[in-house]
Amino acid sequence: MNTVRFKTFILSFTQLIDNTVNESLLLAEGGKLLSHLIKYDDWLPTEFARPHSEQYQQYLLYRDPDDRFSVVSFVWGPGQKTPIHDHTVWGMIGVLRGAENCVEYAVLSDAAQLKSVAQHRLEAGEVDFVSPHIGDIHTVSNAFADRTSISIHVYGANIGVVDRFIYDLATGEKQPFISGYSNLYSEVLV
What we know:
alpha+beta, 5-stranded antiparallel sheet, 3-stranded antiparallel sheet, 2 helices
């Protein structure tokens, strides 16, 4: 297991956060760092790659001491998906194994309803971005019905404690939620 690869990513990302206030630049440069990390599938320990038979898992890998960013592995069992949700902070999603399908939504300006505005598939090695400035509401699913997919997410906060919303597609109604993590703070990679 090449955990040095992940530690190097954390050091580089911390330097980026220390020196960058512009979100566009942060996403562009951070996306390059994440892309390099997910290019190699030799660093994620088994305990952060275990699927659950009933729901996707969200394992905290790292939390910046000042909560400026967090890194999470999402482990998708066959056919698993999220509800429609937002993030309220910037985020980067990089697929390490398998593939994901993403459907993006926008709130209609004249009503509290959602409209699907785009959909795409992320393959292993590809990176996607979310932010309140560029689009923040989506649903994500494992692209495979017969195998696990894993993605690595970097968020501009300790995402497991951020107040967010789940949306009802038909009504646009928002329900508050806090995602939490599938592991304890004491069980992180770094």
